[in-house]
């Protein structure tokens, strides 16, 4: 299976088991901003959303391409309003302007694809991107767009911004790059954020290793977190139910349970977060019922990391796919 076929199923997978959001603590690299499980304000997608799902190469963590600017490591945690628990396996798209206020895909930049990408949330409901600190353009304060795909029929759309004084300090400290100077607007004077932006204010923490910043935001959306099952497409669920791997997070070995509703030929694929298929596991033909497959990263020659796993089921009714994220144990910092 090629990358394009795999990506058609990304972002519409089920939820799995994880620890409660209240027990996931900040590490030294990030100052967490907890939004107390309050629904994120909905915002316009803006004039530059594009459809990231139509382009296979947008599954990536590093969205910079050739764009210069202060490095920004953006981390987002997706929370379900229904039970205030993290939402694994939802797809999160981001897009933003570059240091000069330009968006790829439009006008003179129509041939470019920079500063756009998507990831699937891990067991903690988190996604991470490597980008550059955005610039500003007339009428808008510094911001980043994001969209969270919960199911085929619902996606939450919003925007995030940053502390105004810190934003302008970054511009001043990197004046050779951010030649437009200080942002003349504040979030409070930006029409889009004028009704309040407290839940959209991402943290900024200096990163000594990159010389840039780490940023974090919790995003609460409509839906239910890890308790119960949601997001599984109905037709696929009639043929196969792919469960969350366990343990999750895991170190080197983990088990993937699944249920076949009808006899089928089964195969698994592992994909890294940059969108590369790194392993294939054939299970041959299996009867209807409960099954599981064991994953050992060492045996597969894979480094410890987060991976997406996809099941491909072929039976007399057709070909069906389902995908989830497996989360590797995060090393202490």
**Number of separate structural domains:** 2
Q: Report the CATH topology name of the largest domain.
A: Protocatechuate 3,4-Dioxygenase, subunit A
Radius of gyration: 20 Å
- Give the H and E element order: HEEEEEEEHEEHEEEEEEE
Our estimate of the beta-strand percent is 25-35%
Assembly type of the chains comes to single chain
Helix content: under 10%
Overall average residue pLDDT: 87
Distance between the termini: 37 Å
Number of E-type strands: 16
The biggest sheet amounts to: 5 strands, mixed
Low-confidence stretches: 11-31, 228-232
Structural class: mainly beta
Instruction: Figure out the total of helices.
Output: 3
Shape type: elongated
Q: Could you name the CATH class of the largest domain?
A: Mainly Beta
CATH homologous superfamily title of the largest domain: Aromatic compound dioxygenase
Compact overview of the structure:
The chain is mainly beta. The protein contains 3 helices and 16 strands. It folds into 2 domains: about 5-220, Protocatechuate 3,4-Dioxygenase, subunit A (Sandwich); about 235-325, Immunoglobulin-like, CATH 2.60.40.
Please give a handful of descriptors for the protein shown.
single chain, about 325 residues, mainly beta, Protocatechuate 3,4-Dioxygenase, subunit A, Immunoglobulin-like, 5-stranded mixed sheet, 16 strands, about 35% strand, elongated
